[in-house]
């Protein structure tokens, strides 16, 4: 019995072994194959520039853009502009950085500390000639004309009791006056105009808050006064008109003709004639020494970058700003002139600084508009 059981087990082992061999041979004669993958109609075959994984998001260019101090027209302007850009351009973000003013902003840009700057006609001219406030400065790079936002109009105010005494700017020859804080663009502009007219004067440095008392006491006979985009008045000037009766001393006709002829040659100012009535700017009864509108000199302010910002980015930025100029004007009247003639603002700004190169992005924009002028230079 025991031998019989052993024999049965042996037979079963042999049968299992034979069956295993047969199965193995069958698998070898019928190999499995993997189907060749095909591209889905909605998913193109991968290439070197279209990864099969999640696409890399567009890189955002963040510009640390310098402007004037908090509370100034320059700071307000860039803050509003940055909000428009940041909401309408996914690949560009502007971060507003306050500085001591246009010159400080330009110097920080030119040394590589900032990616954009706040610049005026006077400061651009001085930078590119390394004169005035840039004498001895060694820039590592230069900004190009990129976007002109608004104008500043410069005039002279006197006490109303002196209306008969002073009838022309040249009547101020030899007097004590405040021509603007040292280092400010507005002061550079007015002093340039006075130099063109060969007017000598004694500048008295004052804080803005001291002007009313100085005019009333006769410490000074005249002071600079300025508007932004025709209708805007700085807080200090508003306080001045509320504190003392003032009159705007307009340049006489012969002085205006000299300024029209000579001012554009400076690359700092242009003459501006009969641009606004006092009642459109002032809240009190501000008088005029002549005419029915204010005349003086003007220059441009804007925000600028260099060749490190691609032309296409600047071009699209300008298109966004043009489309939203009306919104900017509603937010602040300093943009009213920009909204009225966006392209014209760029053209006049460049023409006032025609020796300073234009950013390729602005050049592309103006060529598309058909207003590019052959004597302008393209940066880069």
Write structural notes for this entry.
The protein is α/β, with parallel strands linked by helices. It folds into 2 domains: 61-146 and 305-369, D-Maltodextrin-Binding Protein, domain 2; 151-300, D-Maltodextrin-Binding Protein, domain 2 (3-Layer(aba) Sandwich), CATH 3.40.190. 39% of the residues lie in helices and 17% in strands. It is built from 13 helices and 11 strands. Strands 3, 4, 5, 6, 7, 8, 9, 10 and 11 form a 9-stranded mixed sheet that branches. The protein has a two-stranded parallel sheet with strand order 1-2.
Descriptors:
380 residues; alpha/beta; D-Maltodextrin-Binding Protein, domain 2; two-stranded parallel sheet; 11 strands; 39% helix; disordered N terminus
Q: Assign the structural class, choosing from mainly alpha, mainly beta, alpha/beta, alpha+beta, or little secondary structure.
A: alpha/beta
CATH architecture title of the largest domain: 3-Layer(aba) Sandwich
Give the fraction of residues assigned to helices.
Answer: 25-40%
Which segments are poorly predicted (pLDDT under 50) over 5 or more consecutive residues?
A: 1-56
Cα-atom Rg, whole angstroms?
Answer: 36 Å
- At the fold tier of CATH, the topology name of the largest domain is D-Maltodextrin-Binding Protein, domain 2
Q: Report, as a whole number of angstroms, the end-to-end distance.
A: 107 Å
Strand content: 15-25%
Q: How many DSSP-defined strands?
A: 11
At the fourth level of CATH, the homologous superfamily of the largest domain is Periplasmic binding protein-like II
Mean pLDDT reading? 88
Q: Which geometry do the CA atoms define?
A: globular
Q: Supply the number of helical segments.
A: 13
Q: The biggest beta sheet, please? A: 9 strands, mixed
* Overall structural domain count: 2
CATH class of the largest domain: Alpha Beta
| H-E string | HEHEHEHEEHEHEHEHEEEHHHHH
């Amino acid at each position: 019995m025991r031998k019989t059981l052993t024999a049965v087990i042996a037979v079963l082992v042999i049968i299992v072994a034979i069956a295993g061999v047969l199965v193995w041979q069958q698998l070898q004669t019928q190999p499995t194959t993997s189907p060749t993958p095909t591209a889905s109609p909605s998913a193109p075959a991968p290439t070197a520039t279209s990864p099969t994984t999640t696409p890399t998001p567009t890189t955002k260019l963040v510009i640390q853009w310098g402007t004037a101090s908090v509370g100034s027209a320059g700071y307000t302007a860039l803050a509003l502009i940055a909000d428009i850009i940041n909401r309408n351009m996914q690949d560009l973000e502007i971060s507003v950085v306050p500085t001591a003013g246009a010159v400080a902003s330009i110097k920080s840009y030119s040394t590589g500390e900032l990616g954009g700057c706040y610049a005026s006609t006077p400061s651009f001219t001085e930078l590119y000639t390394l004169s005035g406030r840039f004498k001895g400065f060694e820039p590592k790079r230069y900004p190009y004309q990129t976007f002109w936002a608004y104008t500043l109009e410069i005039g002279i105010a006197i006490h109303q009791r002196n209306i008969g005494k002073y009838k022309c700017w040249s009547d101020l020859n030899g007097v004590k006056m405040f021509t603007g804080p040292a280092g400010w663009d507005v002061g550079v502009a007015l002093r340039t105009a006075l130099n063109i007219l060969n007017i000598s004067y004694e500048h008295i440095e004052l804080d803005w808050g001291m002007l009313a008392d100085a005019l009333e006491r006769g410490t000074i006979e005249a002071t600079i006064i300025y508007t932004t985009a025709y209708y805007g008045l700085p807080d200090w000037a508003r306080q001045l008109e509320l504190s003392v009766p003032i009159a705007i001393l307009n340049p006489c006709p012969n002085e205006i003709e000299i300024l029209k002829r000579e001012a554009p040659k400076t690359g700092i100012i242009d003459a501006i004639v009969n641009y606004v009535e006092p009642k459109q700017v002032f809240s009190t009864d501000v008088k005029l020494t002549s005419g029915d509108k204010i005349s003086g000199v003007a220059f441009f302010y804007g925000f600028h970058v260099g060749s490190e910002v691609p032309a296409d980015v600047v071009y699209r930025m300008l298109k966004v700003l043009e489309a939203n100029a009306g919104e900017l004007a509603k937010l602040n009247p300093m943009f009213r002139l920009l909204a009225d003639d966006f392209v014209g603002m760029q053209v006049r700004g460049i023409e006032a600084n025609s020796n300073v190169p234009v950013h390729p992005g602005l050049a592309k924009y103006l060529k598309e508009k058909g207003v590019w002028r052959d004597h302008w230079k393209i940066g880069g």
